[in-house]
Amino acid sequence: MILLVFLLVMASSSWYEVAAADPQVPCFFIFGDSLNDCGNNNHINTKAKANYKPYGIDFPDGATGRFTNGRTTVDFLAEHLGFDNPIPPFTTAKGEKILQGINYASGSAGILDETGKHLGHNVALGTQVQNHQITLSRIVARKGDNETAAEHLNACVYYMAIGSNDYLNNYFLPDHYKTSNEFSVEEFATHLVSTYGDRIRTLYGYGARKIAVVGVGKIGCVPRTMDLFGTNGTKCIQNVNLAAQYFNKQLKKLVVDLNKELKDAKLIYINSYGMGDGDPTILGKRGCCNPRGDGQCVKDKVPCSSRREYVFWDSFHPTEASHRTFADRTYKSLLPSDSDPFDLHSLAALDLGKH
Prior knowledge:
- This protein is α/β, with parallel strands linked by helices.
- The protein has one domain (2-349): SGNH hydrolase (Rossmann fold), CATH 3.40.50.
- 37% of the residues lie in helices and 6% in strands.
- It has helices at residues 2-10, 73-80, 125-143, 146-154, 164-171, 179-182, 185-205, 223-229, 238-261, 272-275, 320-331, 344-349; strands spanning 28-32, 157-161, 210-214, 266-270, 339-340.
- The chain has a five-stranded mixed sheet with strand order 1-2-3-4-5.
- It is globular, with a radius of gyration of 19 Å.
- Belongs to the 'GDSL' lipolytic enzyme family.
- Residues 1-20 form the signal peptide.
């Protein structure tokens, strides 16, 4: 954790220096939840939206719908991959921009369709994949034929980071969802990973060949989780973290199995849980902004000034500094355990040929 503290405190607020060259891959597609939502929830009926101050206080365009003070993990990854601008949300992406990728992530969304619906509407993973099919038809129209479009899509990176809400906004909310009565923790992980695998296979059918799958982080150490469950003197909620571990173990096995099944594709597993090792209270377990009763920032309230010294922005989501650290280790592993079988930089560099 000392290393994490050092990286967060030393993180610069300036944009990365990116060489003026073509991106390492032709496009970058993102599937996920509020950790990487960049505006898809702005115009839907839900409490899970972040298009108001102080969200975006450190982002060049202000409150765009990102659930943090500045940039997200995928914003930093897009920079690492050589893109000049952040990948746009599905709801507003138009024209030539779609050729460089789309961000489908939606706040409160999960692997399961019902997850997070007590907060209002969201775009679940299955619907995100359906939206990608719409994008494909537009790319084919711009490329002129299926073969040229397929060659383009085969070389892209597909980034999938979802699953936290299936626990925090489903399984561990028995007043709203029945899943904890229907499944043991182990059975629920199996159910989630089976559904996840089906979504990945569908993406493979749409041309995805370079796929990064991100595990669930230490959701038992999130301030909102600790508030809801009560810590009783402990630093984190152990049964919630244990659920994440069950999920991650099966998700990592899924990646291994799919690498054998989909022989002309390559999947990597990103160890989000392992990157969070240590005590989050070192930088303060509270979020930087003033939280509402549901854990999001109170509108227009002035947040803390020392944002680079906090792990959490609100009661759920990390600060830009935390996002930067995770993105750096996702792109180029700091430890061998950060990714398996290799990191995102190596995935992007793979030449899988024409399929």
